[in-house]
Each structure stands twice: as structure tokens, then as C-alpha cells.
Amino acid sequence: MKKLASALMSVLLAAVCSIGHASSNPDPETLKVALLPDENASTVIKNNKPLEIYLEKELGKKIELVVTTDYSSMIEAMRHGRIDMAYFGPLSYVLAKQKSDIEPFAAMKQKGSTTYQSVLIANTGAGIAKISDIVNKNVAYGDKASTSSHLIPKSILAENGLKAGENYREHFVGAHDAVAMAVQNGHAQAGGLSKPIFESLVQRGLVDPNKVKVLAESKPYPQYPWTMRSNLKPELKEKIRAAFLNLKDPEVLKPFKADGFGPISDKDYDVVRSLGTLLKLDLSKF
């Protein structure tokens, strides 16, 4: 029995050492690249096959695309060194930064800008003409760690004196498109999500503007950042940064609905940290 326990301990120690070695490897042969779990994992990976091919060519390494089950598991994967690069939302980046030694290096550009907006939407038949009409209504948010489908729209309501649990009922439905569908179907009378995603849903005919209207738009916030482990080899980090900042291939950019990527730094996300303060949220509990 003692020999068996000793053997098991040896295996566990070997596994721990192996994980630690993998997470600290400054120049791995395969780069694990995580993408946001905003849609079905197989769909996200399929749509980003051009990105995989592009990065393998530019970096001279094998690329493994990863899609976790949700934002929290993505943050934990980065924390434990299971991924080398990740495409986070602004809030999920701030949360990951608290737990991991990572750095943002590029943000999506749309119409030449590395900022974007969130929208507060309402069901047209719910009798909501202004934000104050949301009192006692159901409000749909996406993921708790989402910036544009939780933090920003919640801050808009807070600035108008409406607090979750006191003035309205909040429901987390997971993804941006689920928010729009919940509002359109009347399961929630209002909701919040990314403006570009909402506009895309309307353009694709998935959201009927006769059933769903935009109640308010937020001010601009920094776009979703690409991040990498800070302990990667400096030469590799420069190649990664250049690969994104020089990216112009429309097939690679198509899934991001972007016209390119621009430089970004950690301090650009202080505005997101301020939102947490405004809402009196303990971000460490996300």
C-alpha cells in the first residue's frame, strides 16, 4: 500500500512539474491560441482556420486554436498556463490580468477605431419608451464576465438610478445573440449587448427591428484585446505583435468583423476597471 501511495505521489509530482514547465516555456513549439466562446466551439474554430494558417506562416510555429466553455474557464486556462495567447473581452481581460502575468498588444479596429459601443435594447411591445421604464422589468445580460453584454449596460442603468435586484430583475443568458433573442421573444423586456454584434444580428435577419429597438448607446470603450503570456521569448513576442498589427487579409479578419488590429496597452483598460468601481463590484469574485 505504501509503495502504491509512493508511486501515485511520484506521478502527481511529475504531472505538476510538467504543467509548470509547459506554462513557463518561453518558446513553445506549439502556440495555444484561445478565442472567445461567443458561439459554438466548432464554429469558432472553423471560422478562424484562416487565422491559424496565417499565424503558422508568420510565426513559423504550429498553432492550436482553443475555445473554452465560457469566459471564466478561459481566464483559468490562462492563469494555469494552458494557453499562450488569448482574445479576451475587455472585462475578461481585466479579470485575467489580476490572476495572470499577461499583456495586451493589439485590439480590433473597426472603421479605423480601436473602440466600440454597447447598446441597451428593449422589446417594442413591452411599453418601454425610456430607461426609467425598465423598473420592475426583466433585463437579460450575457456572460457575467462580459463587458458589452453585462458591465457596460449595467452601468448605463446604474447611472440612471436603476440597480439590479432592487429596481429590476437580471438574468444571465450566456451569449450576445441569446440576449437579443430573449428580448425579441419577450422572455426579457430589455437587455444589453455589443452594438456591432446587435447590428450584425439585424443585418442577418435574426433580429427583427419591429420587435426590438435600441433604447440607448454607451460611450466608446476599448475594443477586445489580443493578449499573450509576458514570459514568452522577447523575439517571439515581437513577431506575434507584428503579425497582428500588419494583418490585412480579409479572410482572416472576417470572423472579427474588423478591418485590422491596432496597438493597445494595459492602461487603456483602466476605464473598464472604473466601471467595476462605479457598480461597486468585487472583480476578484468573477
What tags apply to this protein structure?
five-stranded mixed beta sheet, six-stranded mixed beta sheet, 11 helices
What do these coordinates show?
- It contains eleven helices and 13 strands.
- With 286 residues, the protein is an alpha/beta fold.
- Strands 2-1-3-12-4-13 form a six-stranded mixed beta sheet, sandwiched between helices.
- Helix 6 crosses helix 11.
- The termini are far apart.
- The relative contact order is 0.17.
- Belongs to the phosphate/phosphite/phosphonate binding protein family.
- Keywords: Signal.
- This is Phosphate-import protein phnD.
Which SSEs are present, and which pair or pack?
Elements: H1 2-24, E1 30-35, H2 41-47, H3 49-59, E2 62-67, H4 71-79, E3 85-87, H5 90-99, E4 102-109, E5 115-116, E6 118-123, E7 138-141, H6 147-159, E8 169-172, H7 176-184, E9 190-194, H8 195-203, E10 212-217, E11 221-222, E12 225-229, H9 234-245, H10 250-253, E13 260-263, H11 270-278
Parallel strand pairs: 1-2, 1-3, 7-8, 7-9
Antiparallel strand pairs: 3-12, 4-12, 4-13, 5-11, 6-9, 6-10
Helix pairs in contact: 4-5, 6-11
Number of strands: 13
Low-confidence stretches: 1-22
Outline type? globular
Strand residues, percent:
15-25%
Structural class: alpha/beta
Q: How would a textbook summarize the main sheet?
A: 6 strands, mixed
Radius of gyration: 21 Å
The DSSP helix count reads: 11
* Share in helix: 40-55%
Largest sheet: spatial strand order: 2-1-3-12-4-13
Order of helices and strands: HEHHEHEHEEEEHEHEHEEEHHEH
Average pLDDT level: 88
- What distance lies between the first and last C-alpha atoms, to the nearest angstrom? 42 Å
